Amino acid sequence: MSRRLTRAETKARTRALLLDAAARTFARKGYAGASVEEIAEAAGFSIGALYSNFGGKEQLFIELLTTRSSALIETAERIRADAEVEDPAKALGRLLVEVADKDTDFAPLQAEFWLYAVRNPDVMQTLAAGLREPHDQLSRLVEPVLDRVGGRATAEPGEVATIVLALFQGLVRQRRTDPASVPDELFGQALRWLFTGIAAGSER
Amino acid sequence: MSRRLTRAETKARTRALLLDAAARTFARKGYAGASVEEIAEAAGFSIGALYSNFGGKEQLFIELLTTRSSALIETAERIRADAEVEDPAKALGRLLVEVADKDTDFAPLQAEFWLYAVRNPDVMQTLAAGLREPHDQLSRLVEPVLDRVGGRATAEPGEVATIVLALFQGLVRQRRTDPASVPDELFGQALRWLFTGIAAGSER
DNA sequence: GTCTATAAACAGATAGAC
DNA sequence: GTCTATCTGTTTATAGAC
């Protein structure tokens, strides 16, 4: 079964390795701060290989920005699965700690994407589109919780999902800045307060 | 009363103009993407003037990072004043719309600060220290609200302030990405839900 | 398809004139 | 104190060998 890779397969592998290395390098050095030589080296290739697979630094970054939302989707899927057997607030709280403490490249890379999009308005809709699917998935996670607490009349699932996502991103960054100010349980606690508040609002 | 400026005063003025130009340029092009020539030009000076006032690009950026928290403090002050005559949630909601829509350089510059600090751990404590005073001020704004709803027993003002700040930053970014997903009243609404939830939590 | 060598542009920083 | 001119290293991107 193990056979020699076809030309198309090795090329796809090279591309994938370059994209991975680019993600790491852009996260660690920033878009402008990372050089194509650095990226190629991190992937174990030369500059020439990079240019034969991508149009250049900018095109490589854009491709990363366009495709890396799928990573978010996978994460959202996992959370949705976890949330079926335990408290969703707890599952999301755990995710925050993991992302903030373990996946140290995640938040910086997202920040780079956002900054690039702010500075290149054409790309902003690409970023927004990439964030839509994870957002929808979060909405579907929020929906049953809203139904359970009877807050469906007061709050739109999509808007609550936006709030949850904003809180998540803000707290991840804050935890990197000052870990002590964002204890492990803070995100989960905030979510419980939020849903309790929505539930109470519907009773008025 | 209008007299010629002393040498010390003109130098101080040059420094201030350079710092302002640096803030704008770093926000628009990023730390690595902005050139010292660009910054000097935006301030109406030459490269030489920049180097005679600052150690270099890096030192200029650090000075900006260190001193620009005072801008946050002034904003926090203003909000605190507004919050005494109207609903704090409303005052904060208005601030979010203003910052996201009018002060277009604010969020990108904060993102640049954070990214630089993530990549230069020595600077992280400087950033954290600069954020502490605005955070404390927000805590003092939150405290009376907590007292009023009777949530003082359930929630620490400092932790609630962290949540409010994270939500604020997250929503400002999200509003730049997709304005329609963050309507004007969303932040205020989220805050009301949060405080209602805290109040309800204390009654259990 | 990937590598090495190189071209051309540009960056940060310094020196000396004024 | 600020400006102009320049030095030095680095960058993106390409051309041609293998």
Kindly summarize this structure in a few lines.
Chain A is elongated. Chain A has helices at residues 7-29, 36-43, 47-53, 57-67, 69-85, 88-101, 106-119, 121-149, 157-177, 186-203.
Model description:
Chain A is an all-alpha fold and 204 residues long. Chain A has two domains: 1-55, Homeodomain-like (Arc Repressor Mutant, subunit A, Orthogonal Bundle), CATH 1.10.10; 57-203, Tetracycline Repressor, domain 2. In chain A, 79% of the residues lie in helices and 0% in strands. The first copy, chain A, contains ten helices and no strands. Chain A has helices at residues 7-29, 36-43, 47-53, 57-67, 69-85, 88-101, 106-119, 121-149, 157-177, 186-203. The longest helix of chain A is centred in the middle third of the chain and has 29 residues, at 121-149. The termini of chain A are far apart. The model of chain A has no long low-confidence stretch (mean pLDDT 94). The structure holds a DNA duplex (18 and 18 nucleotides).
Features:
mainly alpha; Arc Repressor Mutant, subunit A; DNA-binding; 10 helices; homodimer
